[in-house]
């Protein structure tokens, strides 16, 4: 404190505390031992020591290993795609070009030719495809050509691996012989659809001769429909068929047999059953006429 009576020195003794705190202190002695340099970076508003990133040798090796793995995967993908392309090309050449699956005429089988279709004509059509690999063979086009062979009604062509072919036919078998229009003097052989499948000077054995007015297509169609539905044993006994209209079909049996008045082609299955019953009945043993045109009221005489 100042002695009594001494004037107060407010300007010196009342200095603010902050001024005293700002008095610089002696610098600390430098640390002993090895020194370390610290680089200071300034980023934005913050300024302070930042340590540089340190990449270890182990991390570099790991990155290199991953890069090699990616390169190996890409290499395998390229090789796999190339192998697939080569495989597809080789398979295509094997199936479509090479003779491994080529058609051999010696292994072509034709069935269903019947008595009308000439098998050699069918084979001649197939011969144009000899040596063609079966996968490339156009069976639909070949079938259409086979259908053009006379006497063929339906056809089916099936590959028979590895070198064969099966040609399955449905032939147009003649069911009637119709006298040809003048000046011709022969017989036209017709199937059940009225398609001519051949001709002959004399009716073949077992084939009935049909007598219908010239140009009467409906009458001829009715006769052929009846003949188509007859059982084989009865058809073999029919020597001739005559009809003036489609409702007056009459059949004459062979060897001086009976006459059968059939009428129209309607209810043919029922008429067949009734005729069989009448011919088997003892009461009709000597009958020469069997009228089944009205099958529910048959007549014999």
From TrEMBL:
Keywords: Cell cycle, Cell division, Cell membrane, Membrane, Transmembrane, Transmembrane helix
Entry-linked InterPro entries: Cell_div_FtsQ/DivIB_C (IPR005548), FtsQ_DivIB (IPR050487), POTRA (IPR034746), POTRA_FtsQ_type (IPR013685)
PANTHER family hit by this protein: CELL DIVISION PROTEIN DIVIB (PTHR37820), CELL DIVISION PROTEIN FTSQ (PTHR37820:SF1)
Main localization, broad class: membrane
Residue span of region Disordered: 1-51
Protein name: FtsQ-type POTRA domain-containing protein
Biased composition (Low complexity): 14-25, 34-43
One family name in Pfam for this protein: FtsQ_DivIB_C
Superkingdom of origin: Bacteria
């Amino acid at each position: 404190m100042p002695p009594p009576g001494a004037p107060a020195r407010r300007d010196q003794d009342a200095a603010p505390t902050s001024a005293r705190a700002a008095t610089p202190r002696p610098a600390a002695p430098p640390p002993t031992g090895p020194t370390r340099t610290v680089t200071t970076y300034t980023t934005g508003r913050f300024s302070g020591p930042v340590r540089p990133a340190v990449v270890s040798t182990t991390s570099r090796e790991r990155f290199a290993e991953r890069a090699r793995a990616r390169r190996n995967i890409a290499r395998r993908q390229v090789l796999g795609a190339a192998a697939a392309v080569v495989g597809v090309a080789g398979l295509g050449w094997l199936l479509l070009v090479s003779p491994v699956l080529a058609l051999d005429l010696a292994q072509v089988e034709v069935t269903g030719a019947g008595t009308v279709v000439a098998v050699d004509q069918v084979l001649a059509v197939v011969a144009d495809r000899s040596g063609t690999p079966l996968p490339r063979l156009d069976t639909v086009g070949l079938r259409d050509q086979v259908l053009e062979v006379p006497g063929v009604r339906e056809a089916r062509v099936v590959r028979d691996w590895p070198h064969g072919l099966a040609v399955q036919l449905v032939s147009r078998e003649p069911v009637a012989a119709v006298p040809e229009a003048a000046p011709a003097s022969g017989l036209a052989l017709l199937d059940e659809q009225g398609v001519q499948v051949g001709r002959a000077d004399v009716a073949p054995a077992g084939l009935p001769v049909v007598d219908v007015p010239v140009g009467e297509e409906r009458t001829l169609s009715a006769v052929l429909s009846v003949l188509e539905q007859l059982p084989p044993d009865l058809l073999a006994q029919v020597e001739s068929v005559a009809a003036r209209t489609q409702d007056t079909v009459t059949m004459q049996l062979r060897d001086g047999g009976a006459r059968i008045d059939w009428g129209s082609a309607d209810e043919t299955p029922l008429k067949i059953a009734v005729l069989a019953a009448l011919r088997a009945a003892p009461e009709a043993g000597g009958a020469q006429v069997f009228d089944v045109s009205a099958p529910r009221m048959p007549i014999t005489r």
